Each structure stands twice: as C-alpha cells, then as structure tokens.
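Morning F.,

Quick status update on the modeling queue. The single chain you submitted on Monday has been processed. Sequence for confirmation:
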Amino acid sequence: MKVKFYLSGSGRSPVEEFLFDLNQDLKSEFLDAVILLEQGQNLSMPLSRNLSSVAKGLHELRLKDRTGAFRFFYFIKKSDGIYFVHAFKKKTQELPSKEIDLVLKRIREI
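Structure tokens below.
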C-alpha cells in the first residue's frame, strides 16, 4: 500500500517538516517502518500501536532516542493508502487532547 503524507490547504506537509529536524537515526527508523508498511506488514507494539478506539484505521508509530519519545500518527484508508497525518515529541504519559483533535481534523480532510 502506498504511504502518503497529509498536505495542508497551503500544500505544506507538517509530518515531513517535523522529520526534517530529527537526527539521522530517527529518520532511518522512520523510513524502515514506512518500508514495512508499504510492504503490507502490520506493525505492532512496541513500534506501533493501534488507536482504533480514537478513530477507525488510526495508528501511532512510536520512536524514541536519548532526547525523548516521538509519535507519528498514520491513518490507513483501505482503498487509497496510508496517510501520515501528524507528528510530535511526546512530553507526558497521556496523549494530549489537542494532538488527538488535530489528528482527527486532518483525517476528516483526507
């Protein structure tokens, strides 16, 4: 399945912009996960977590390094592809509701 990135109305890709600032090791881990997804593999914990309780088809890619934990939200749209819709550096145990709200808004725009 093809991996795509959410684009804002102005054509920006927030996830790609976020990736740009990460270190090379994290970028490599992200790309490795993308390759697995494109090959049709189902990723599971600890690398990925299903968030269907938040939205059907939503998953969270979980990466970390010595600087902290990073979350990348992707949405599987069965007939269309896998969309990376949001990414952020995690600072608390809980997923902040403002981050979830943004993910849900972007999913509706796809």
